[in-house]
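Narrative of activities, Objective 1.

The group set out to show that a structural description can be obtained from nothing but a protein's sequence at a throughput compatible with the screening campaign. Below is one input-output pair from the validation batch, recorded exactly as produced.
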Amino acid sequence: MKKLINFIVSKIKYIVLIYVAIQLVLIFTENISYKSDALYYFTLAEKCIQQNEFYPSTHNLKDDYIVAPLYINVLYLILKVYNSTLTISLLNILITLFQIFVLYHITNKLFSKCTARLTILLYIFYLNTLGLILQNYTELFFLLMISYSIYFFILQKNIYLILSGIIAGFAIGVRPVGWALFAAFMIIHLVSIYKHEKISFNYFYVYSGIAVFITLFGIFNKLNSGHFEFTSTTGPINLLLGANDDATGGFNSTVLEKDKAGYIEFTDSMTYLQKGEFYEKQAFHWISQNPVKWILLAPMKFIHTFGWDDISLSSLLGISETNFAHVIKIIIFDFDFDKALPNTSTIFKIFYLSMLFLQHLFYYILLFAILIGIYRYIKNPLNDKTINLILIYSVITILMIMLTVGSPRYKYPIFILLLPFAASYLELKFGIGNKYIEK
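Output recorded for this entry:
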């Protein structure tokens, strides 16, 4: 086993080439169809093309919320070139290539070349990434922005620090949880001031980069829509999804149904700002009436995020209308395999369950290795500010999830950023040595 792992790690360049080839085969052979958020993003971008306007515009004022404005505009631009789901998948392949590059270099600078190669191997065999290239979610693009912000921060030169801030702004322009990286920068900065008793002005280059993006993108959107928007306005609805009588910790749209807390009868009479105020008011009212229940929901949101891991694998296997948790629930409570996986053969059922079980086993092993790797770092700290930045960002992101609503997809960016900790532990466990790594 040790020799095999060492051999594979030493040939990581060829593994990446094979991985890209598999991605290309998939996008040209799979019947790609979107659902849920992926379909909504695609629909928004297509409407932008029809109206020949960037997102958001005045046409979006009566939407329920503004979502991932930077990402929707990227979709708008590439779909104007060629309007097809294939275009988005090709963009996703390009994103994964840049992600492999930056993840390798971040890990190489913070740990070692061996750890970096092993990290990329783990990334490749984490099949949810492969499934995500066939989807249209924000996770891949958002993670890339977070990763490059961290990478440029490592380089420390003033111009790179400004770029780090600008790209952190890009992340905020995709998802509000991008603010977690800004908060992590602030905490690292304040700790540095406390420890060294002097102000480090390097961080102000990062802050200025974030401010530049927010200002320019906000003004651009104000000229286009009449409102200064630079990120999603989904915070209130996500807060309500995790703070209502029917809340389970995960996504549950029943709160928006008639006679429920989030129901709005005449949605066309309200702007997204008014709807956001309504959702926020309803959520805070419920929290004030049920503080204990809301606090007890926090662990459930954590479980909904980390407890299972079918982000995209079911879709990759051609079962886009279900997920592994739903399948297992039916099998356990109804003991009905046909109901769990309708219109599929016995061979496919066995194949599907085998693949999902193996992938979840791999996921739980990685999760365990990440925890051990983090424990080893905390126990014998290198006191590296970038490693601390990644850890603090991850903790703040998890806290933000536990305040709103949990979903397996939400963990993807932090899970990938924490893979180097798993790699560092597995490197020690399996005795993978630098003598196997090409010079």
